[in-house]
Amino acid sequence: MAKRSSLYIRIVEGKNLPAKDITGSSDPYCIVKVDNEPIIRTATVWKTLCPFWGEEYQVHLPPTFHAVAFYVMDEDALSRDDVIGKVCLTRDTIASHPKGFSGWAHLTEVDPDEEVQGEIHLRLEVWPGARACRLRCSVLEARDLAPKDRNGTSDPFVRVRYKGRTRETSIVKKSCYPRWNETFEFELQEGAMEALCVEAWDWDLVSRNDFLGKVVIDVQRLRVVQQEEGWFRLQPDQSKSRRHDEGNLGSLQLEVRLRDETVLPSSYYQPLVHLLCHEVKLGMQGPGQLIPLIEETTSTECRQDVATNLLKLFLGQGLAKDFLDLLFQLELSRTSETNTLFRSNSLASKSMESFLKVAGMQYLHGVLGPIINKVFEEKKYVELDPSKVEVKDVGCSGLHRPQTEAEVLEQSAQTLRAHLGALLSALSRSVRACPAVVRATFRQLFRRVRERFPGAQHENVPFIAVTSFLCLRFFSPAIMSPKLFHLRERHADARTSRTLLLLAKAVQNVGNMDTPASRAKEAWMEPLQPTVRQGVAQLKDFITKLVDIEEKDELDLQRTLSLQAPPVKEGPLFIHRTKGKGPLMSSSFKKLYFSLTTEALSFAKTPSSKKSALIKLANIRAAEKVEEKSFGGSHVMQVIYTDDAGRPQTAYLQCKCVNELNQWLSALRKVSINNTGLLGSYHPGVFRGDKWSCCHQKEKTGQGCDKTRSRVTLQEWNDPLDHDLEAQLIYRHLLGVEAMLERHRELSGGAEAGTVPTSPGKVPEDSLARLLRVLQDLREAHSSSPAGSPPSEPNCLLELQT
Q1: How far apart are CA 321 and CA 315, in angstroms?
Q2: Which ranges constitute the DSSP H helices of 342-435?
Q3: Which of 75, 164, 491, 496 lies at a CB distance of 3.0 to 4.6 Å from 27, suitable for a disulfide?
Q4: Least confident of 14-23, 181-190, 191-200, 785-794
């Protein structure tokens, strides 16, 4: 069993930000830090004081993280980016909102005395002396201290204060991982209430020393335990903190939700999984019909989460197509008007959306990627609405006069027709590229709708059912917001956004089969009608081919349904393999194209070149960040592994941004999580000359000075399935609606509440009764699980909350 924590983060928008540029505007973006570790960077929104990001992430973390902070920055091309302000949410604050924190939060100024990080290793002892008790404080080492100097490090020393007496350690130059091993003694007096204060500082020659954090020890409680040793988290100095300046730095709209789950061994979830799978296999003829009941008891606000969890569970069991087919039949059975089919936020619609993102994202990238890239590169002014045309924005090439409104509209129509035609052509050619499981699901949807609405008057209804998901809920949202579908790294500017919006509208019209209702909404889209009508014919031909899977292919298809594609990460990186001699500079990195599979991390000169294996997956021992000072550049990671002879090796890889760095670290950690011999500590620096640059140790193969972070990962659409976690999340949801399930059983004429038939040989046991019994068994298993208790940290009893 394991305790797992995940943090859902949605950075919505900002408002009333201060202007940082001479133009009276700013170029804002957000950096998200968990315990001062940069995890996420949003895209920059240019020239605005009210940016909209709409970006969402999910981060898997150790249960003991303390806080998440959102820094709003202003990007500058020629100087260091400006800090506008921040919002900090502690773990306790987030946990106090069961449904998550959602709303606007005022930005506060960044106080240097609060920007602390890292831990300090102390040994504390109290023992009786000849005339009075003695207090001994040994300052051993520290790790992950905040870098305060321009070289990316600090010059730390420790100040120990007790009852007016102050002692200081020596200064360790250029290190965020210092080692002191110095001991100080103080005389204790009976009844004295003073606390022991241990402060870390960065020494500066010409300016004042920078505060790095402190730990306050309760001496009275220390007397009881006599001695204690461990790592203590450094805290900010609240007594010196300035009053937060709220009101003139703007606000940030956020959604943050914490989920803690104790995941039991797989065997505990088998009864629940088998019961749900049995219901799906029976379909509409099932005696219990648990899936309809789950849909009925699921509120609108959590329907998307439930749909995603169920979809992933059945995808892992090879039953995704059957599960979606059951939902299709349920919705069709209660739909009488064809124009409302799959247009609501039902469990079927939400599950199908999740399914396409899990199973079809790579396909989407292949079809849409080139068209989206072309729109971004051209940056053409495009507008079809006469009321919004701005002639002054466009000049006629080669002429000394602005274009007329009619010329702008005609040129815009030509541009959009070209993009729409290219998109429809790419879609038409992509039948075989579409994943088999997606093709099978659309085939089943097409067949069910045709059975429900036969007749010539409903000829287009099966096609519209397919396009309602493929075009309206998958392709069009990706066209409008390519950043959110990982098609681009940055948000579109205003001009490109308008082009993408008009293109998405055209795709929607094609997906609606060019119905009169869709044409009447915006008459100014009329110039695109010839291309739309041609697109409808192309789309119908594409869908006909897409759903035409011959019966002889079914056996091969069924085998693919239960297989989840291995996690893959590809892209260019810069590599440097140090030999430990001389300074390491960024110029020594060589650009290569890397590919991570379930077998190895390999590289080549170009994506099409033959790849050479660099690291076998089973040999990876850790994937961690590297200190910025080590190579004179940022966003460097190290992959620690063993070669074929069992000797430890390290590969240093540089990424282009913090997002790419964390994505690669996340992918490497996921594929190697079950490796034997994973490291618990590592060196964030490099071994240069005769010592480590981080902690100055001279033993190259000695224990690392910082702890590894193998459990910190980002959730991606191509993550491997985690069957036990999905089952746990479904159990957690069902537990929340257990009272409603009990009530439904009573109203449906089942056994008395709280009783379960125990004679299945005489009377088949009701599915709902079995479900309730499974929930009871899981509840008992959780209550007896030691992992069910909240996580605790060592030494917390010795720290005073100041």
Answers
A1: 8
A2: 347-359, 361-378, 405-428
A3: 75
A4: 785-794
User: Could you tell me where the beta strands, DSSP code E, fall in 693-764?
Assistant: 706-707, 713-714
710: nearest Cα among 745, 750, 681, 741: 681
Distance from C-alpha of 537 to C-alpha of 670, rounded to nearest angstrom: 44
Domain covering 119-239 assigned CATH 2.60.40.150 in the classification: yes
Q: Which two structure tokens, joined as six digits, stand for 207?
A: 């300016």
569-714: CATH number: 2.30.29.30
**What is the spatial distance between Cα 596 and Cα 605, in angstroms, rounded to a whole number?**
15
Average predicted confidence (pLDDT) for the chain: 85
Contacts of 230 (CB under 8 A, 6+ apart): 121, 122, 794, 795
pTM for this predicted structure: 0.84
Residues in Cβ contact with 604 at an 8 Å cutoff, skipping those fewer than 6 apart:
592, 593, 595, 610, 611, 612
653 in Cβ contact with 574 (< 8 Å) = yes
Q: Which residues pair with 522 in a beta bridge?
A: none
- Domain 360-561, CATH: 1.10.506.10
Confidence of residue 428 (pLDDT cuts 50, 70, 90): very high
Domain chopping of the chain, boundaries = 2-111+244-259, 119-239, 265-336+721-784, 360-561, 569-714
Q: What is the pLDDT of residues 55-111, one digit of tens each?
A: 999 999 888 889 999 999 999 988 888 999 999 999 999 999 888 899 999 999 988
Q: How far apart are the first and last CA of the chain?
A: 35
User: Using 50, 70 and 90 to split pLDDT, how confident is the model at 581?
Assistant: very low
Question: How do residues 153-196 score in pLDDT, each as one tens digit?
Answer: 899 999 999 988 999 999 999 999 999 999 999 988 776 678 89
Q: Quote the CA–CA distance of 525 and 385 in Å, as a whole number.
A: 8
As a residue count, the chain comes to 802
Q: How confident is the model at residue 584 (pLDDT cuts 50, 70, 90)?
A: very low
Instruction: List CB contacts of 389: < 8 A, sequence separation 6 or more.
Output: 383, 405, 408, 409
Over residues 570-596, mean pLDDT: 72
Classify 2-111+244-259 by CATH class: mainly beta
CA distance 303 to 300: 5
Kind of pairing, strands 251-263 and 569-576? unpaired
CA distances from 430 to 248, 368, 427, 563 (A): 52, 11, 5, 21
Strands, DSSP E only, in 17-133? 28-34, 37-41, 52-61, 67-74, 82-90, 101-106, 119-127
Task: Quick: pLDDT tens for 106-134.
Answer: 999 988 778 899 999 999 998 876 667 88
CA dist., res. 309 & res. 291, Å (int)? 13
Check for a shared fold between 119-239 and 569-714.
Answer: no
Is 354:478 a contact under the CB 8 Å cutoff? no
Side chain identity, residue 635: H
Average pLDDT over residues 335-344: 82
The Cα–Cα gap between 69 and 90 comes to 8
Let me know: does 119 contact 144? Beta carbons within 8 Å: yes
The residues, any chain, with a CB within 8 Å of residue 114's CB and separated by 6 or more, are 236, 237, 241
